[in-house]
UniProtKB/TrEMBL annotation:
Positions of the UniProt region annotated as Disordered: 1-125, 505-607
Taxonomic source organism: Monilinia vaccinii-corymbosi
Taxonomic classification: Eukaryota, Fungi, Dikarya, Ascomycota, Pezizomycotina
Bias (Low complexity): 104-116
A cellular component annotation (GO) from this entry: endosome
Annotated protein name in UniProt: Vacuolar protein sorting-associated protein 17
Family annotation (Gene3D superfamilies): Arfaptin homology (AH) domain/BAR domain, Phox-like domain
Domain of life: Eukaryota
CDD domains: PX_Vps17p
Family: Belongs to the VPS17 family.
Function statement: Component of the membrane-associated retromer complex which is essential in endosome-to-Golgi retrograde transport.
Amino acid sequence: MDYSASINDPDNPAGASPWGSSPTGSPQHPRTNTFPSRDIVSPTPYHPIQPGSASYSQEDIMGAGAFHRPDSSAGASVSDAESRRPDTAESTQSDVEVQHGFGQQYQRQTSSQQQYPVGQHKPEPQRYHHSIARQAHHALATHYKLQAKITGLERTGRKDPILRFDVHTNLPKFRTTQFRDVRRTHSEFIKLADHLISSNPEAIVPAVPPALTSAGAGTDEDEARVKASLQRWLNYVCSNDVLMRDDEMVLFVESDFGYSPMLKRKQPATGVRRRVIKQFAPPPDDTPELQDARPVVKLFYLGSMDAGHKVDKLVKARRGLGLAESDFGVKLGAMNVQEPHQGLANAYRKLGKTIQSTGDFHAAQGTAEATTIGDPFQYHSQDAFIVKETLTNRHILLRELLQAQQLTRSKLNAADRLKASSSVRREKVDEAISALDEARSNEIYLQNKTQRVTANLLLEQRRWTARTAADLRLSLREYVIREIEAERRTLATLESIRPDIRAIDSSGGLSRLGRESHPAARRASLAASQGPKGDSWSGVPRRPDGLNRSISGSFMSTPEGANGEEDGVGHDRSLSGSTGGLPGLKEEDDEDRVDARNAASRLANVL
């Protein structure tokens, strides 16, 4: 047999055999027969090597494929070995003689190899041993990965959607490294998550995102959010070292027609027993971080659930406001029919349409609030509940460990009493020993499991805290941006009706709001506050040195060369930060008035 073919030494690309230390010819000459010749000695040691010979390990001697016979060899294959007749005494004796002959021949070869000095040849077996060690280290350092990428979402109405995704992995449990167009329903994702929660008490499995968001089924935003949330869930599960090695992950990916868990495991305690256990004080815990984590997680679970309910009430109120405004706009627009004044009739018609549009904007704003902040609160509430129950399972495991320790002590005391007894029967001794061994083995198993669960949950809890905080920050950021956009849209819509309101009559219409007519410099500008450069809030372009001025407590007077509106606003700002009158500063009679415009201007300056 040619053993050099099974060796691939990176240090020697020429392919020299590790058994080439002997100066005898290498068994690599061409053969005309597939049977090994009689003078070729197999390197497999049938007898122990003498102490004076070279020290080979069992892996060095056998090599990578030492026991893999060629298909054309004379030895029987696996199927032949199963179908051959049983060995008789004669055949067994002949096999022993043959093996003894091979052993003597191998000993003669090893003794002939000892005749050569060690310095005449390179110690290749030692080098081969180092290469095997490097290969073993490379195998241990292999980074296993499991990656899944969602490629599509198929939905028919409000039915269970189907998600299509591709999988790439180098885990040895899978049949191949790539799986294309795997199709799983959302309910199958929930089944997988339930199994992972039950079978992996040392891991925190995130909650499966809902199949439908508040954006509405069939919308582009709903599809994008569902795909993004499920992609994040897959990324976390596939990157977790514990979850990615679960056997159900293989079935979830490789199943051709649907998926159902092969092993259905339940929680360690369910129903009434679980509720009763929760009523007791938690067991003694030597990990303060996990001991303090469960109350915090429970408070977060209750707080996020309450916040989600309040957001739902806010959304309902916002949508009700939108409907009321739309109805009010329709009725207000219908008043132009019976209004004899042309300017006022035109204002009624324009104002009705504007209020109706504002109602539609408020309804859309309610939907945006439910999507950006309501759904995240509900999801994180479900996720925190899973974390809380996972930490509860650890408490149950600690209780089981304490009970196992008490049982072991009781069995040990029973064995001691039996040992001190004067009359001992053999049956009782055997029973006590077996009970003690069983109790000790159960205690050791629970001890190891508790240590593993505690060590892993410590890391998982930190990851969950960081992940939840980051998700909530992103949700709040998106919520604030959507709220600002909605308010800017509403403000721009209301400002669009301002010229029509002021054009009701020649005196300015409703711009004076029942007060006396002020100078032209004090009248509100018709410039829109919403422009391509952002909010100006007062309808006046920003000052170029606005950033250099102090926000509060500024005593700098504004230049008189600017327009009247800017002068008034700047002077109001100076008065807002002053504690008394300043010498040389002229105050107007109507300077301290506070209306909606000045209040908005002052608030914008503070912010």
